[in-house]
């Protein structure tokens, strides 16, 4: 690309606070294509706002500044210091690293594991060690940017299949086995399937290259494993968002589907979501892990994980496994699962367009119009709710969305307060687009949640004329605004007599 003079049409008063870089492409002259990258100069206001956090990945609440993990981390800091100041291959290996790696391997059900100080580089700097130009990578089209970058750095042939589409995956595997390499048609040395446990899903556009990461959908792991075995391929599973957040024991998507974790050749995850720390891991057979200890760029050149972060992860995993504070880990996992389904059910009741699996802690709500996206974010902030909004170019132009992240640290009262704000703002800006009926699983949750309001199937102390309509909204989901109707019908004195939550 060559730099070109900025067209006069771009010279406007906004240029004082927006720098526009225009590059003329090497496309066909008739296209006259330009790419414009706008950089808006933001500045901090210097103010502080206390808001309810529905934007960060603190799935199990271990990122909170109090509790047993914090106490153990404080002791580790006093004993080992804050930094290590060396790589793992030099003088940067602590006894905590060995303890953490053994614990991670046990937790995910693999033979061995190795940990790294950064989750992004766990993918981007280790994939080039696993595949090369004689290999083929079959990658989901919504894979995270770190996976895309790692595959490109490896030099391997990259084939993308449609998101979670097993038929398309099998077709690409068939072609890769039958036809081999593009020009010589020699067989590949290795075929590696690269997928994620939970797709967290936005599409980022950089110089005509789409990089993906945030849908809230869950991988069809049993089907992927079956195809892997059928075509003699290897499986690389990124569990950044699923480890700790899925399954009865919090052990990820393998636990969620009840499959043998040893069927996953390379299991990767991060410690930034469910464990309230930083870094990543790769787990697999011992031969693989020993190879990465010697050949990984991350191990050779990257500074090792600081002791406080390692201790934070050790403490949180031990709690999840029940080795410390028995019952606490199970309680958090169960609470997270209940919070996710309740939150999603209430969003469906508002007739918002909600993406993703009902058990995914990543909850995208489609807004469509970029202007409404900004309005939603600012209005929620004014009302005390902190959210993450994603628009173009991080998504396609018409798929702007709000991304909520649910945590076990959210109490029912906090979720109800957040949902009241979401309902109010959604009605104000008009994003209740969905015409679909409420899903059956959501109806069951909503009816169960409202069961204390009913006597013989009818709401207590409510006018008979509205009882039938309210009950219909719960069972069929046909009332477009049952929440507002409920608020109009339930009187304050009724709440006091029946002990009804204030959000009703």
Please describe what this structure looks like:
The chain is α/β, with parallel strands linked by helices. Among the domains are: 2-40, no CATH class; 85-320, Aspartate Aminotransferase, domain 2, CATH 3.40.640.10; 450-504, no CATH class. The protein contains 18 helices and 21 strands. The longest helix has 22 residues, at 328-349. Mean pLDDT is 82; it is low at 1-40, 202-214, 455-462, 477-485 and 488-504. Belongs to the class-II pyridoxal-phosphate-dependent aminotransferase family.
Short overview:
This protein has 504 residues and is α/β, with parallel strands linked by helices.
Beta fraction: 15-25%
What ranges have pLDDT less than 50 throughout 5 or more consecutive residues?
1-40, 202-214, 455-462, 477-485, 488-504
Number of contiguous helices: 18
The major pleated sheet works out as:
7 strands, mixed
CATH class membership of the domain at 85-320: Alpha Beta
The termini sit apart by 59 Å
């Amino acid at each position: 690309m060559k730099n070109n003079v900025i067209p006069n049409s771009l010279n406007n008063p906004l240029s004082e606070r927006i720098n526009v870089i225009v590059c003329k492409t090497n496309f066909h002259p008739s296209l006259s294509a330009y790419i414009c990258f706008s950089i808006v100069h933001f500045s901090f206001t210097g103010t502080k706002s206390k808001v309810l956090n529905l934007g960060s990945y603190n799935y199990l609440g271990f990122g909170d500044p109090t509790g047993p993990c914090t106490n153990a981390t404080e002791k580790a800091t006093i004993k080992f210091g804050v930094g290590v100041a060396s790589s793992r291959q030099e003088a940067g290996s602590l006894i905590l690293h060995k303890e953490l790696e053994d614990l991670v391997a046990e937790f995910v059900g693999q033979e061995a594991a190795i940990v790294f100080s950064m989750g992004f580089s766990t993918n981007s700097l280790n994939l080039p060690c696993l595949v090369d130009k004689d290999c083929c990578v079959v990658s989901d089209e919504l894979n995270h940017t770190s996976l895309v970058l790692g595959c490109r750095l490896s030099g391997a042939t990259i084939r993308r299949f449609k998101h979670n589409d097993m038929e398309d995956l099998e077709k690409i595997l068939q072609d890769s086995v039958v036809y081999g390499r593009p020009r010589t048609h020699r067989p590949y040395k290795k075929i590696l399937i690269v997928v994620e446990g939970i797709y967290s899903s936005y599409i980022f556009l950089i110089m005509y290259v789409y990089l993906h990461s945030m849908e809230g959908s869950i991988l069809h792991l049993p089907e992927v494993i079956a195809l892997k075995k059928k075509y003699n391929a290897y499986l690389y599973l990124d569990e950044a968002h699923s480890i700790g957040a899925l399954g009865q024991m919090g052990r990820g998507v393998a636990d969620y589907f009840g499959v043998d974790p040893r069927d996953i050749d390379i299991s990767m995850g991060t410690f930034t979501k469910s464990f309230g720390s930083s870094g990543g891991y790769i787990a697999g057979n011992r031969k693989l892990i020993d190879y990465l200890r010697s050949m990984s760029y991350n191990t050779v050149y990257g500074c090792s994980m600081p002791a406080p972060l390692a201790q934070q992860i050790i403490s949180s995993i031990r709690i999840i496994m029940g080795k410390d504070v028995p019952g606490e880990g199970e309680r958090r996992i169960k609470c997270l699962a209940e919070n996710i389904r309740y939150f999603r059910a209430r969003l469906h009741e508002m007739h918002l367009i909600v993406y993703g699996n009902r058990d995914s802690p990543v909850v995208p709500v489609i807004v469509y119009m970029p202007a409404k996206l900004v309005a939603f974010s600012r209005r929620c902030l004014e009302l005390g709710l902190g959210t993450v909004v994603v628009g173009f170019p991080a998504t396609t132009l018409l798929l702007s969305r709000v991304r909520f992240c649910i945590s076990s640290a959210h109490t029912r009262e906090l979720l109800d307060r957040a949902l009241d704000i979401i309902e109010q703002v959604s009605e104000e800006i008009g994003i209740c687009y969905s015409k679909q009926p409420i899903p059956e699983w959501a109806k069951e949750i909503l009816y169960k949640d409202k069961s204390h309001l009913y006597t013989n199937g009818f709401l207590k102390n409510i006018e008979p004329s509205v009882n039938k309509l309210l009950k219909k909204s719960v069972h069929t989901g046909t009332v477009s605004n049952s929440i507002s109707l409920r608020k109009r019908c339930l009187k304050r004195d009724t709440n006091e007599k029946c002990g009804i939550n204030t959000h009703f």
